[in-house]
Amino acid sequence: xxxxSVAKRWQVPxxxxxxxxxxxxxxxxxxxxxxxxxxxxxxxxxxILATAxxxxxxxxxxxxxxxxxxxxxxxxxRVMMVADGFVAVVSxxxxxxxxxxxxxxxxxxxxxxxxSLGEAFHWPAMQASTSxxxxxxxxSRVAGINQTMQGALNIVGPPLGAIAISVxxxxxxxxxxxxxxxxxxxxxxxxxxxxxxxxxxxxxGSRPATVWQDFSAGLxxxxxxxxxxxxxxxxxxxxxxxxPGFALMPLLITAHFxxxxxxxxxxxxxxxxxxxxxxxxxxxxxxxxxxxxxxxxAMVVGGIGTAVVGLAPSDGFPLALGGMFVAGAxxxxxxxPLFAILQSxxxxxxxxxxxxxxxxLASAMMPLSLAIAGPVADVVGVQPWYxxxxxxxxxxxxxxxxxxxxxxxxxxxxxVAAASRTAAATSAGGE
Length: 431
Fold this sequence. Notes:
Helices cover 84% and strands 0% of the residues. The protein has 431 residues and is an all-alpha fold. The protein is globular, with a radius of gyration of 21 Å.
């Protein structure tokens, strides 16, 4: 009776938090656009843009798995509040630096590193909280709604960022992020988020597990699920070949298409319009019955769209917009079903670790790819990365249909979860 009652009441508290986070993300998008464009305008260097992207992913790579272990131990509501507050403090520091005219490139690096540090804790806390607040049957549609929000933000964020930096001083743009972070914290002050019951290392009479033990348990959990290992490998390959092109998009606009901030905004918005369309489709449709088929099919089409962006001639900006739209539309259809599978199969007290493990390993190949892409882009341009990355992207999607652990990801995930619960119960009973 209680679970039924909770299931009926989940919408109001979940979407109150969701709305606050949406406002915060708007502010973050404005800041990200402004910082990247400032670097492009002041330096015009692919190496500097690649370095900025690199420092922004370092916390996910280095701290991700440990952050997930801590999130699984801590109160997730407080984690999100502290993370949002920390990002607001960083933005406040940028307000001063832009206002005083003392900003340097290394300040941008430090700010991106710090903001990413907050996100390394915030993202797994939000993802892990979703499965505790939303009934399982609605997880795929909520994933679609989340992707729709991402798409909408990608639509309005870049043009809004371009407009904002043209009519406002940059310190005012940074100040907007401080205000939107406060809007994200406000509902968290009043809404409780359920906490999972810990099942690992906490049998009767046992000592509480250490962070390292929690981290090790997360690795063992992932290693015991071949389908999840395949997902991790797939994400690492895709991030290696695709992300450099997107990190260097401002140079594609300025050096290849001869555009400015507005054209950059339009190209990023095309991605956002696609994400919105794909997210709406997923939220209504829900995907194929075997959810992983949705993700793999979308990878093939998304790879083709990415390659089209790189193949567009200098006078073919509309073609690039079309390719970016297709790639964006496929993004929710790739990520939504995969995260829904993980949210419905991974043990609640393990989700923080698993989500950050996915994020950190997916990002782990980026330093190498960015180290290569930055200098190469300075010599031959950015277009080859889109063609190469898109082609590999599509081929990985095709090849994944022949990887049985990946095709059977959901079914095997439920079996792994059941085995984990049995092992935990046996351990508790033995003590």
